[in-house]
Design goal:
heterodimer, A: 89 residues, alpha+beta, four-stranded mixed sheet, 2 helices, globular, B: 276 residues, ten-stranded antiparallel sheet, two-stranded antiparallel sheet, 8 helices
């Protein structure tokens, strides 16, 4: 399994995912971040996206950006992508 | 690809934004009106995932419940913030109320639908119904691809999707070691989101100005009403401005000039494209 996580401050979602992580929990994480007020006052919110090295998440990132753009049009997302070498236990 | 070569996708706004003062718990009225409208249009889902800070079980766990159950929760909780979402594959219908923020003292209510079979023919009748149930400030619709371009502050993503950036736009606002990540200053873009006197500020081809707009806007109603280049509709609840036949898709040319005139007229602010 690959680990994939999205976080801002103390709010994080970590997924044990296949090679194509699902969008749904990421959208829920965004909804929680925004309704908690974590992003209050900021038009740009910075999300740390941590993914296994080599996992192509371009389509996922585009869908996530489109969800944010449609649902939270006064906000923009800045994704800081960190890739790491996944070592199974 | 230079910064003017990007071509906006012809995609109408999947919904609208509606700003209002949040005193007096308008959430229930707003949502009941939206549910009734969507039901009549055949665009209401039978279940939504609800995210409300501080649900009774102490968690913020997302729960999938019916519209009727949602209205019960909102009636009990009186939240100033909630998010509802129905997913169909990778697409969603979202209904969100966000409390006022540090910079904008008005709540932001958004209805956005990406799901083709849950799309009403027009959002304008709903905006005008909402205007009759709450005292609102400002509402508008957009082409989402255009505002995505205009409000994109992620420099790396901007270069990939939209083209070159002007060096004067680049900022590094994060503390070390994250100061290597570049963000763009979009504060002069025609399609930006801004704030004036604690109220929301943006321009779009269709805008509705409500009674609370005049509490913060620097312009006067009579200044707007005498503009013969705008199509205006005045009612007791709102002043509807139609400034262009379709949602803006360009920050330059004729559309750029109209957006500039709107910024100056409504907010006494300016815009600039391309960035210098």
């Amino acid at each position: 399994l690959d680990f994939f996580s999205l976080s801002q401050g103390d709010v994080a979602v970590q997924l044990k995912a296949s090679r194509s992580p699902s969008l749904t929990p990421l959208k829920t994480a965004i909804d929680r971040l925004v309704t908690r007020g974590t992003t209050q006052g900021a038009t740009v919110f910075n999300l740390d996206l941590r993914k296994p090295f080599g996992l192509d998440t371009t389509a996922l990132e585009d869908s996530l950006r489109q969800y944010i753009r449609d649902t939270y049009p006064d906000k923009d997302v800045s994704l800081i992508v960190n890739e790491y070498e996944f070592v199974p236990n | 690809m230079n910064m003017n070569s990007y071509r906006t996708e012809a995609r109408a706004h999947p919904g609208f934004v509606f700003y209002l003062p949040t005193e007096g718990n308008p959430a229930l009225n707003l949502l009941a009106t939206v549910f009734a409208f969507l039901r009549k249009a055949g665009a209401l889902s039978d279940r939504y995932v609800i995210t409300v800070p501080g649900l009774p079980d102490g968690s913020e766990a997302a729960q999938s419940i019916t519209p009727e159950e949602i209205l019960c929760i909102l009636g009990r909780q009186e939240p100033r913030t909630f998010a509802l979402r129905h997913d169909s594959g990778d697409l969603s219908q979202g209904i969100v109320l966000l409390a006022c923020s540090k910079t904008v003292r008005y709540g932001c209510f958004t209805v956005a639908n990406q799901i083709p079979n849950l799309r009403p023919p027009s959002w304008s009748p709903l905006i005008e119904e909402l205007a009759s149930v709450v005292r609102f400030a400002f509402a508008g619709t957009h082409n989402p691809d255009y505002i995505g371009w205009q409000r994109c502050a992620d420099a790396k993503y901007y270069k990939q999707k939209y083209g070159a950036v002007h060096s004067s736009q680049i900022t590094r606002p994060l503390p070390p070691p994250l100061d290597k990540f570049e963000q763009l200053d979009v504060s002069r873009n025609p399609g930006r989101f801004d704030h004036v006197n604690g109220g929301p500020a943006f321009v779009s081809s269709d805008m509705w100005l409500g009674p609370a707009f005049w509490d913060y806007a620097p312009c006067r109603r009579d200044e707007i009403v005498k503009q013969n280049w705008l199509n205006l509709q005045e009612t007791e609840q709102f002043l509807h401005i139609n400034a262009y036949p379709e949602p803006f898709t360009r920050p330059d040319g004729e559309q750029g000039e109209i957006q500039r005139r709107l910024w100056q007229l409504l907010f006494h602010l300016d815009c600039q494209w391309p960035p210098k």
